[in-house]
Design brief:
This protein is about 0% helix and about 50% strand. It has no helices and six strands. It has strands at about 5-10, 20-25, 30-35, 45-50, 55-60, 70-75. The model has no long low-confidence stretch (mean pLDDT about 95).
Length: about 80
């Protein structure tokens, strides 16, 4: 569980490319989207959703071409 601030990390050996992080609420609405540049294998992607409602959110990471790289869930209370 999170209060709304958390980090996402993804193992990638490709540097100097952008990744897009999308977050969806339990109804499927996109509530967050941000592009992050990669600088190393586990580039830290800081997320601040302190004003988000308590819910289970789907986290989706995409590469610069829109290909889904990973998904996960985060609980905000």
């Amino acid at each position: 569980p999170s209060s709304g601030s958390f980090q996402v990390r993804f193992l990638s050996y490709t540097s100097n490319v952008n990744r897009t992080l999308n977050i969806y609420d339990s109804k499927g609405s996109k509530v967050y989207s941000k592009e992050y540049p990669t600088a190393g294998p586990y580039t830290k992607m800081e997320v601040n959703m302190d004003n988000a409602a308590s819910d289970v959110y789907l986290v989706e990471l995409k590469d610069s071409k829109g290909k889904r790289l990973a998904t996960g869930k985060v609980v905000i209370r």
